[in-house]
Amino acid sequence: MIRSDSDVEEILKPYAGRIRRCIEKGFSDALIVSSTVASALEKRTRAGINRDLIVDEIAKEFESVPRIALMRKRGLLLINVEEKLSIRIKKMDSAGRCSNYPTQQALNFAEQLSLDGEGYDEPTNLNVGYVPDSTGTEILQILAACPNGGRNEWVISLEATSEVSPFVTLDPTVEQKDRIKIKDSETKEKKDGSKD
Q: Does residue 195 lie within any of the structural domains?
């Protein structure tokens, strides 16, 4: 069953901030781990380290949370939220697409089937993940995407600052532009060279 983006926003609302923090912490930890050998690592290796540390953070954060069930199957951690959503963690592009080797497990997930290929009404399969910058050292966005075969039914952005709703709905048919994140410093120089 494919739930609407608004239904998913409502279901995820109590957990979105925690999921976001786990993704940010795992990503940050991965930068520390890989910084000593960064020149020797390929992109897929760094992505694997990021994913593993993010999944570890999520497993620790949600292992005893009521209405959340964690399931490991063939190297994949699925987060079942209230028996309504089945989430896997992925690296994504700015349109919420993720790359997969087309295993039967990955194809089943994208087709809204159980990992064993059985159809079911619940839960809705979601990819939740981070969009890295071109250097792989910062997260530009954290997205939730509802796969539907070879495309996304919809994509929402988990925003960090919103108290009312932590989501912004994105149009999956429009290529999303990356956001540029400017690092804040204690003093900023104006164009004329003076400081604030």
A: no
| Amino acid 173: pLDDT | 53
Q: Which domain holds residue 40?
A: 5-170
Q: What is the chain's percent helix, strand, coil content, to nearest 5?
A: 30, 30, 45
Is 194 within a domain?
no
The single residue listed with the structure tokens 């990356």 is 178
Per-residue model confidence as pLDDT tens digits over 31-44: 998 887 877 888 88
Alpha-carbon span 90 to 101, nearest angstrom: 13
The mean pLDDT of 46-60, rounded to a whole number, is 93
Q: In the numeric block, which tokens belong to residue 142? A: 């954290």
Q: Look at the chain and report how many structural domains it folds into.
A: 1
Beta-strand pair 151-158/167-170: antiparallel
Burial 89-102 (b: 16+ CB within 10 A, else e): bbbbbbbbbbeeee
The model's pTM: 0.77
